[in-house]
Amino acid sequence: MKKFLVSIALLCLGLLPACSTKSASVVPPRTLTSIQITLKAASVALGLPDQLTATGEYSDGSSQDLTATVTWTSSNTAVATVSGGVVTTLAQGTAKITGSLSGVNSPSVTVTVSAPIVNKLLISSSSQSIAKGTTVQFEATGTLTDGTTQNETGSVTWTSSNTAVVSINVNGAPGLAMGVSAGMSTITASVTDASGTFSSSATLTVTSATLTSINVNPVLTVPIPLGTVQQFTATGTFSDNSMQDITGSVVWSTLPTSVASITASGLATAKDIGTFTVTATSGAINNSVMATVTAADLKSITVLPSNPTIAQNTTEQFSATGTFDDGSTHNLTDQVAWSSSNAAAASINSIGVAKGLTPTSSPVTITATLGSVSGSTTLDVSNATIVSISVSPTGHTIAPGTELSFTATGTFSDSSTQVITQDVTWASSDTSVAKVGAVGVVTAVGQGSANITATFGGVSGSALLTVSSATLKSIAVSPTSAVMAPASTLSLAATGTFSDGSTQNITDAVTWSSSASTVASVTSYGQATGESAGTATITAQQGSIRGTAALVVASSTLSSVQVSPASATVAEQTGTQFQAVGVFADGTTQNLTGSAVWTSSPASVATVSNVPATKGLATGIAPGNATITALFASVAGSASLTVTGATLDTITITPSTSDLTLGSSQQFVATGNFSDGTTENLTAQVTWTSSDIGVATVSPDGLASTVGKGTTTITATMNGVPGTATLTVN
Question: Is-above-0.85 flag for pTM?
């Protein structure tokens, strides 16, 4: 046994060098070489979290989840912050996120925070019970991921559990329910987004009660200002003694319509001074209220043109523009009382058309009066006789079924020129080719050529018109789609494409119609008016060819009116155009420039036009600062206007020289150069003339139309300052 133990001891001693060598070998520690960041979602809605993962790569090839260990950094903490890998979204935008540990930094990843989305839905209505044939509006309110609420009526999907009892989305208006028959139906709104599917429901009962009376409100004790709108409502009392808002179910009318018009939703527009009746009718039941339109704040009336001279037996159209205390201007031509100081020399009718009857030795005073306010100008009737007549345009080719307007300009023995389109007798040399109306509007009938002739005082002038054999292939209506507010208007245009590849504006040559006139009506010249919430298809048709546009009359409320430019500067006695855009609660927009009521304050610094052709055009009166405001449906927006004392030095016309072929046209632009070094586009404000109307005529907006071969000088004049350009017709 002793020998055995000694042997073991010796064996261990022999192994000691080896054991000593092994314990001296040190394994190096692993080191972090890189960090990689991954995102659960690259884009996340505001208010929702996002998850980041940090993975560390080590020198020995191993990896480890470092999400809870790294230090997180956001490049934009106003948009998103990170803690423990959890991203908290704070605002829409982007932020670059990095993670770092032990001096190692990860490449950045970009988190995009998008708009908040719905994560809860609630519907509501003003009534849980309606009578058969009446309507009620449901609204859907969404609670968004950022905690805010938003009207989602137009975004959700609406359903009725029993469409035989209740129809939903009447006339295409989201959430508008109509009672079809007695009973009950569940109305549901639902929406699906990244957060999931959300819905909300309510029960609507339809009764068999019958309407017994209607009450129209408001009963106005104060007049409606000219040019503004007034909402009327109708409340129905039924046979079960229930009461209900039936504004959207009755038929609205006004009398006389010349004083005020009214939409299918009860929104009245004051068009003329006077008293009118508003009536709501449902079957045999109706009720009416009276209202008055006034212009009590009328400050002055301007009669234009100023001090014209016309030849005997010719006419002049005068206009009356009223300036009000609020700085607005309105066209009062049809509202004023017109008078002539010498009716034997010059007569004037109720719409401002004066006719020279006998030459005068002293001017005739033409006066426009409204209430206690008057404006006047003078009119001279000369003894000049007609020498020649120029008819334009000439050499045009149009397709059968289309129209073209001609203008007659007379040159008289005193070398004066005058537009006499209304005074001449129009004729066509071949009525199988083209027919001409009393005011020079020609309708193409069939292929061929015809001379369109204007005759006055035994003198004639003519222009050649060619009607092609082209046939209409398609009609495009523009805009193709639009969102409108009730009582707002929109001008639609129809462009025809023909078999020869040519295109032409045929707005006045088509038949316009609306698929739902209670939603949007349309005139014979393509002007649509929003009547009530819903959708309508507007059609322009000629023969079997048609084109369409889709209109939506907004059911959401008008949130704001934005006026642009936000600020502008003009010289006194010159103008600048402002635009008004309405923004609705659902984010849609509409150009309201032509529908809004424009005002300026103070009116001593600037005025702003409410005349249809120039709505929103502000004119500087005197140096200073003014606020220009656009008002529609009780919502207003404004912009600032600075009027300087700069004077007009020169006018530059572009192009300065033009060479055209007979039958073509040229648009000229007039730019004013002022004493303070500024420039303004004055094209629509200057007076345009042509030195030789036998060569070319020029319209009030600077469009020159060729009449014959030769050279003429085109002149633009404002405040006594002229600018010229040369036009040659070959």
Answer: no
